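Here is an idea for our session: we take a single protein and study its fold together. Start from the sequence, derive the backbone structure tokens from it, and show both lines together. Once you have written the record down, we can walk along the chain together:
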Amino acid sequence: MTTAETIVESLPLMEAFYTIQGEGFYTGHAAYFIRLAGCDVGCHWCDVKESWDENLHPKVLVNDIVSQAEENGKLVVITGGEPLMWNLDHLTSKLKEKGIQTNIETSGAYELSGFWDWICLSPKKKKLPTQSVYDAANELKCIIYNHHDFKFAEEQAARVNKNAKLYLQVEWGKKDEMLPLVIDYVKNNPKWAISTQTHKYLDIP
């Protein structure tokens, strides 16, 4: 975590919406999602590829982002794209001034910025996390798309801090094929838990 706030007055915003968190530790909680644009990690199975090019989305003043968040509960999830492409000190400090809990979902590919209550690290093979994110993560969520992903998940579990909660989550398009394997894996390796995209099962936008 940075020790002094860096002032970034505006950020590329793809969308912001109030919904139910469908994944990981905070599954089932009402949350206001702030989806920042920009990502160079390039997962082929990404379901928000329209977020990759930050130039396609407007720069929005941090004060305006925070004002909208204030009207939508007390839990914010900042996601992307890859949100850590941008320095998030100013945004998160402003949210905290309003008494809002700050969570992030990140691949960890960039150095950690911002002031966080919960860090969900979802690492990707193409661009591995920085040590600062491994050290600070509260939650490790590894996506299972193929058989090799179990090995990758164990490699990531060995690198993340010992207090991080460990989750395996089947990539949605492969759930019929891979979910039975994930269930068996977790039964045989109970340090892991299953994260399910419950919002998709419940048809929650």
In short: Residues 135 and 161 are 5 Å apart (CA to CA). The radius of gyration is 16 Å. Residues 10-198 form a domain with the TIM Barrel fold (CATH 3.20.20.70).
